[in-house]
Amino acid sequence: MNSNEALLASWIKQSQRTVVLTGAGMSTESGLPDFRSKSGWWKNIDPTTVATVEALERNYELFHEFYKTRMENLQDCQPHEGHAILAEWEAKGWVHAVATQNVDGFHQKAGSQLVFELHGSIRSARCHRCSTKVKIESFLSGQTCERCGGKLRPNVVLFGEALPEVAWDQSLSAIRSADLILVIGTSLQVYPVNQLPRMTKGKIAIINMEPTDQDDQFDLAIYNQAGQALKVVDHYLAAD
Ligand code: APR
Prior knowledge:
three-stranded antiparallel β-sheet, SIR2/SIRT2 'Small Domain', 2 domains, about 240 residues, Rossmann fold, alpha/beta, 9 strands
C-alpha cells in the first residue's frame, strides 16, 4: 500500500470503532456553500448579522432571508457519493457513527443511521419564544407563532447558543472510545466541536481541501475533495 488513502483504508479495517466528524466541506460537492473557504457564506455576510440570537431578535428580516435562502437551496440539492460511501461503511461495520456540524440532513438522507447533529437541523423549525414545533412552511412564509405570536426560527444552533446536549454527549462518548476519528470537510474553527478530535485516544485522520490549524496533531492528512478521497479509500477497502 503506497498512498495515504491506502493507509487510511488499512486503519479503517483494523479499527474496532471509527467515528466520522464532518463539516460543511462534506456538502459542497452537493452544491451547498461552506462558510470560510473563498466561496463560503461568511465571505459575503458577517455571521453576527444573521446567525446569532441578537440578529434574530433585532434584525428578523435579514435573519429570515438568510435561512429561507438556505432552506430553498437545500430543496435543489442531494447527498453526493461521499455521503453514500459513509452510509455503506456504517452498514459494513467500518463506521460506528457520524458526528456532523452540518444541518442539511444529507448523512441521514444517504442512509447513515447513527448521526449526531451537533449544530441542529435546518429541516425543522420552532417558535423562538415558546419552542412550539412548527412546519417549515410556516417559517418560510414568514408567519409568527400561532400559540404566542413569537418569531419562528430553524432548529439550527446559532452562535453563542448551547449545543444540543444529547448530540454532544453521544458524540463525546463515541469519540472517547474510538480507535480512529476521520475528520472530513471542516476548518475546525468553531468551538466546542473543534475540541472533539483531541478527545480521542485513537488515531486521527483528516480529509480536507486545505490544512487546518490542528493538522500537526493529526496522524494522517489527505488534501483532496471529500467525495474523491472517499472513493479512493473505498476502492482500497473493497480490494482487501
Ligand atoms: N472536500 C473537502 N474539503 C472541503 C470541500 C470538499 N469538497 N469543500 C470545502 N472544503 C473544506 C474547506 O477548505 C474548509 O476548510 O471544508 C472546510 C469547511 O470549513 P468551514 O467553511 O469553516 O465549515 P465548518 O468547519 O463546517 O464550519 C463550522 O461554523 O458557521 C458555523 O455553524 C456553522 O457548522 C458551521 C460551523
